[in-house]
Structures are given as structure tokens and as C-alpha cells.
Amino acid sequence: MNFETVMQELEALGKERLKKMYMSNGAREPLFGVATGAMKPMAKQIKINQPLAEELYATGNYDAMYFAGIIADPKAMTAADYERWIEGAYFYMLSDYVVAVTLAEADIAQEVADQWIASGDELRMSAGWSCYCWLLGSRPDAQFDESKLASMLERVEQTIHESPERTKASMNNFMYTVGVSYLPLHDKAVETAKAVGPVEIKRDNKKSSIVNASESIQKAIDKNQLGFKRKYVRC
């Protein structure tokens, strides 16, 4: 399938209801409103195609950008490529669920995520913390530096309440993911989450939401989910 065929198929799969929902979360025109599950048949047919992924991502069309993440070749992308992608990620569903997810399958994932966390830019920071969530939830514990993750937990405790809104959400997810998926620091993550307490996340034109990593970790414990690792990061 070439670029034109993919765009035509995505447009045909679009639903007005989903388009409105995506836009209520921050998406903007152009977009079609395609359910992620509806993209799977095309993804199976195309498999991995980095040149096509680049064409699709460059459109600025939310659905095309999302599909680009599914068919991208993460290990073929350079740090500069990821920087270009995060530059185009104008809201969190792109930064955290397309760019961060794609990065999580790359060998340079931690290096790039560290730079984004230190950037001071809301969506870059959010993507960096999110990338670590995808990494911790899929890779063996032995692939991580325990002392580094411990210092990251300390950073969360010290800065989460003053951080930008989307960054807060991803930092909260990081505490939860360390507590559930990275067993060497389970206890520290539990302590950190308790110290942080409830986190208020303000959203444009919507009521604020309250997230609580401590309660979420406890729910995972009750369901015997400690040590959870997913087989695949991307769809």
C-alpha cells in the first residue's frame, strides 16, 4: 500500500463520533476519527515501512500520525528523527502514545527520554516520563540502572506538584509503573507515592482530575499484578 492508498483507507474508516472525542482531548484538524483497532488489518498488510511512516507523520493528520507510529521502524530512527517527531506532536495523545511508544522500542530510548525529561518543555517531559513507563512495563528489570530510577523517583517527589499538567500525569504513571513493573524499587515507589499523595491535573475546558499512584499501586497488588510485563509495546 502506498501513501495515497493508506490515506484513502484511513478516511474511509473515520467515524464522526471518534473524531469529536479525539478533538475533545486536544486533537485538531486534519483528522478522520479512526479507531485504533480498525488500523490493524492495514498494519498487518504493510508491517514495517519507515519511509511510508515518515510520509504519514509529516501530514499533521492525527490518524495518519498514529498509524505512522504503528508501522515505523524504531531502531532505524535516529535521535534527530525522534526530535523531529516530538516537535510535531502537538498534544499528549501524540507525544505519549505515538512518539514515546515508538521510542520505547529503540536502543537509544533512555538516552533520548532523559534529554526530554530535562528539557523543560511540557510535552517533551511528558513523553520522556511516558517512555520510561513503556520501557519498564516491557523490558527485563536487569536492563535498568536501579540507582538512576531511584533518583528519578526522588525527582518526582520533589517536583511533581509544580510541574506542567501533562507532565504531572506522566510522572504519576511513572511512580505507578515502577511500583508495579520494576520489583527492585517496589517499596521505594510505594513510599514515594504515599509521600506525593493525590495529584490534581487541570485540563482545558474540563474539570480537573485527581490521580493517586498510591491507590493505583495498591489495586495492582490486590490483583496480584506485581512484576507485570507486556509482550508488545506497540499495537
Automatic annotation (TrEMBL):
Pfam families to which the protein is assigned, alphabetical: DNA_alkylation (PF08713)
Residues passing through the membrane, by range: none
Lineage top rank: taxon: Bacteria
Name by which UniProt lists this protein: 3-methyladenine DNA glycosylase AlkD
Organism: Paenibacillus lactis
Organism lineage: Bacteria, Bacillati, Bacillota, Bacilli, Bacillales
